[in-house]
């Protein structure tokens, strides 16, 4: 990594940032014509760097010469199955998964409820994460060139490197990728846009605030500035923002008038700004992002999966001039894809950063399941993702499913499709992506706009439950149920077979208000979860969540 440096001005830093983003984007694009060569180079570096580790020796990696040998030597594992090696790392043993000592561990909730612990080394940041991170912002630089020139024009709701962080037993940071402090890591240009803004570091007296109050405090401070771009990445954060403002605007206006932040008198009073916001709230009964920031032009976020349902409805809240652009696609396990100019969603695989393998989504992943390389994928098909990289992951099944929506050169362009997992009470094997496509199609057929959905195997074991939030009270929920049933039959052959045999009844649709989903998001953040971790999930088995979301609603049979 480069060392930290001081720039003479914000303009000089912005120009250096622009050059770095375009450089990494250019390198990523150059690798797309020959993904096999790029992937071979990634594997060679992984073996050279980490072959002589405890994991490498145990799996015979020093003798591996190619991808086929690597697949024969190393079984596919879920993250949980790396735990024995991770426990040795946390106990202080060196050279277990990586030749370099981890400087931190990336965390997020695991598929079995356990906390993930992904090693983060300097080599992983330099070779894998940072090239992806910079390349992922190329569309912002190309289409919104003024945003990097001032520190207070971007509200970064994704990164919060100054938030309270957990640590491993060995004392190393155990953080989400959004909490990584690139300044401390020695990469000044990677300090995210908006993370030098006046609201990026809270006053010392407020620095220990929990996630819910931190959301308010940062918005309160940003409300005094001409924000023109919002980086959310997790679209649930973007969906929550209008609701947060509706909840907080009286407090926010009062504090702007008084010159307080969280009750501390640390800003000049601005009664004129407060009066203008009060007038805007009086006209609409609430305060919208468009009222706070009338020149808002960019929302950078994941725009597939559930967000396809609700992002169109957010335009009125955010303003007519808003451009919704796709964010880079990745997870705690590693980078996946970077957006390409001219494409409204998805991104090209970052074949120069990680080694990727794929399994058709209809197949189960087993330790020795045959996998496909990137150039072997087919457009229109969905696949499980298996990732390896120099940061200490070897054929890790990340539990994400992607859909191939095109190619650049021989490299697939993919969209995030859904999480791994099935609803199946009679052998129907329904995926989240089946449900989402069926819900969207049923909405079009019946002329109703759907904004959110939650889905599960029904409590009576003979049908499915669907909690569906419509944009307006649906006049024909009965028709929607029929259409949803028909569309599920088209999407999932197993569902159609179960319906024909009589083993499965049509789904039970519960019409719920959009606010029910917002209240559940708010509850989790108030309980201490960072907003970046509170993500949309179609399949939810939590009985408490269903009880809360369905409270006060009736099912349409």
UniProtKB/TrEMBL annotation:
It holds the Pfam family GH3_M. Residues 349-419 form the GH3 middle domain. One of its GO terms (molecular function) is acid-amino acid ligase activity. GO terms for cellular component: cytoplasm. This is GH3 middle domain-containing protein. The lineage of its organism: Bacteria, Bacillati, Actinomycetota, Actinomycetes, Streptosporangiales.
């Amino acid at each position: 990594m480069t060392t930290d440096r001081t720039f003479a001005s914000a303009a000089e830093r912005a120009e250096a940032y622009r050059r770095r983003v375009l450089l990494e984007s250019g390198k990523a694009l150059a690798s797309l014509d020959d993904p096999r060569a790029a992937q071979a180079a990634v594997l060679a570096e992984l073996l050279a760097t980490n072959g002589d580790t405890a994991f490498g020796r145990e799996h015979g990696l020093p003798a591996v010469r190619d991808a086929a040998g690597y697949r024969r030597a190393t079984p596919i594992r879920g993250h949980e199955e790396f735990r024995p090696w991770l426990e040795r790392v946390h106990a202080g043993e060196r050279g277990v998964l990586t030749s370099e000592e981890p400087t931190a561990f990336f965390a997020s909730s695991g598929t079995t409820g356990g906390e993930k612990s992904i090693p983060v080394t300097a080599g992983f940041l330099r070779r894998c994460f940072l090239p992806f991170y910079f390349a992922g912002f190329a569309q912002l630089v190309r289409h919104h060139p003024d945003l990097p020139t001032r520190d207070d024009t971007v509200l970064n709701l994704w990164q919060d490197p100054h938030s309270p962080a957990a640590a491993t037993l060995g004392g190393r940071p155990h953080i989400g990728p959004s909490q990584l402090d690139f300044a401390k890591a020695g990469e000044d240009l990677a300090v995210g846009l908006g993370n030098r803004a006046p609201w990026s570091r809270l006053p010392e007296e407020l620095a220990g605030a929990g996630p819910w109050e931190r959301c308010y405090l940062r918005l309160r401070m940003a409300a005094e500035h001409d924000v023109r771009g919002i980086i959310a990445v997790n679209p649930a954060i973007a969906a929550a923002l209008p609701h947060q403002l509706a909840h907080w605007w009286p407090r926010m206006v009062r504090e702007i008038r008084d010159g307080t932040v969280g009750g501390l008198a640390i800003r000049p009073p601005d009664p004129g700004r407060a009066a203008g916001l009060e007038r805007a709230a009086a006209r609409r009964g609430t305060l919208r992002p468009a009222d706070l920031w009338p020149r808002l032009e960019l929302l950078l976020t994941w725009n597939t999966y559930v967000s396809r349902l609700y992002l169109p409805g957010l335009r009125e809240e955010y303003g007519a001039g808003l451009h919704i652009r796709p964010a880079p696609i990745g997870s705690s396990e590693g980078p996946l894809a970077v957006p390409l100019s001219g494409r409204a969603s998805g991104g090209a695989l970052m074949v120069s950063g990680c080694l990727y393998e794929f399994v058709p989504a209809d197949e189960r992943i087993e330790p020795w399941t045959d996998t496909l390389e990137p150039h072997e994928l087919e457009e229109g098909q969905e696949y499980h993702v298996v990732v390896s990289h120099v940061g200490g992951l070897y054929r890790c099944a990340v539990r994400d499913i992607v859909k191939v929506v095109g190619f650049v050169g021989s490299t697939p362009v993919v969209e995030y499709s859904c999480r791994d997992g099935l609803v199946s009470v009679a052998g129907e094997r329904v995926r989240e992506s089946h449900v989402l496509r069926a819900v969207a199609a049923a909405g079009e057929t019946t002329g109703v706009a759907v904004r959110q959905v939650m889905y599960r195997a029904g409590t009576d074991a003979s049908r499915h439950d669907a909690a569906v939030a419509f944009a307006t009270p649906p006049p024909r929920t009965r028709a929607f149920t029929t259409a949803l049933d028909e569309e599920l039959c088209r999407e999932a052959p197993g569902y159609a077979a179960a319906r024909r045999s009589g083993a499965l009844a049509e789904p039970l649709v519960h019409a719920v208000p959009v606010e029910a989903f917002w209240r559940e998001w708010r509850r989790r953040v108030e309980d201490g979860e960072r907003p970046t971790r509170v993500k949309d999930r179609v399949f939810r088995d939590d009985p408490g969540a269903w009880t809360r979301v369905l409270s006060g609603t009736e099912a349409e049979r």
